[in-house]
Amino acid sequence: MIDPKRSRLPIIRQCTLLRLNRSGVYYRPVPQSEANLALMRLIDAQFLETPYYGSRQMTWHLRRLGHEVGRKRVRRFMAIMGLRAIYQKPRTSVPHPEHRKYPYLLRDLVSERPNQVWCSDITYIPMKRGFLYLVAIMDWFTRKVLSWRLSNMMDAEFCIEALQDALMHYGTPEIFNTDQGSQFTTPRFTGILEERQIRISMDGRGRWLDNVFIERLWRSLKYECIYLHAFETGSELREGLTKWITHYNGQRPHTALAGRTPDEAYHGAPTPSAPGLTPEQMANSNAVRMAA
């Protein structure tokens, strides 16, 4: 919104009119050092194995690996990466008054069909010389990735773009579930859902199991794609993610889908003759996981 080329309206006046801090206009982010990026990759890999590690336990883990790091430094890295331990923590911050929190609606809900429930989450993606954030929207029943976006900032913009893309290509779900991150609680995001009369569901604080299917997606994506390739640029990462998600949706069978791929389950393809769960067992499996 700031236009530095306006000769008749200096930047300081533009900032005053927009109620912006002038220092923020001139700020240019400083990239993380190679040493910091290496530590963040170690934190990310360990957090997949032990999502209950807070900054104290993660600091001990890194020290056991031979890295002399302090807890404040580890806490800062985890904040940049958007990592929060799954245990319940005291309420140390006051939510924005305009950001309403919605109740969790999936407990005891039996997922029976596509577009009944969608879910979304954000994860940190390490690269060879930096990192990006990935948001994905998934159909809860079929595990199909409906849309995704990359961003170098963990803001609401790329989440809104992914939501609009999914709605445009796949219609409207009955329920949309996220965590309580500010990207999903902003009225700009929830307003899109409310306009379409989509019921909004949000995980409890520290309850990673409430969005367990997309957490499993992150684990598979990182072990099978991200950690196997040293992506150097955003374009390389985008190409790699496109290939992996295309394979995940269209070629990778799931036990919980009775041997079908997410694409086959979403479009109602019959169950293959190979051993697997029956459709009734699949529905019961989904119901048990949601009640957990």
How would you characterize this protein structure?
A 5-stranded mixed β-sheet has the order 3-2-1-4-5, with helices on both faces. It has helices at residues 11-18, 22-26, 34-49, 55-64, 71-81, 157-170, 182-185, 187-195, 212-226, 234-250, 262-266, 279-291; strands at residues 117-127, 130-139, 145-151, 175-178, 199-202. β1 (117-127) and β2 form a beta hairpin. The protein folds into 2 domains: 34-81; 117-291, 2-Layer Sandwich (Nucleotidyltransferase, domain 5). The longest helix has 17 residues, at 234-250. It is 43% helix and 12% strand. It is built from 12 helices and 5 strands. The chain is globular, with a radius of gyration of 21 Å.
Layout of SSEs?
Layout: H1 11-18, H2 22-26, H3 34-49, H4 55-64, H5 71-81, E1 117-127, E2 130-139, E3 145-151, H6 157-170, E4 175-178, H7 182-185, H8 187-195, E5 199-202, H9 212-226, H10 234-250, H11 262-266, H12 279-291
Parallel strand pairs: 1-4, 4-5
Antiparallel strand pairs: 1-2, 2-3
Helix pairs in contact: 3-5, 4-5, 9-10
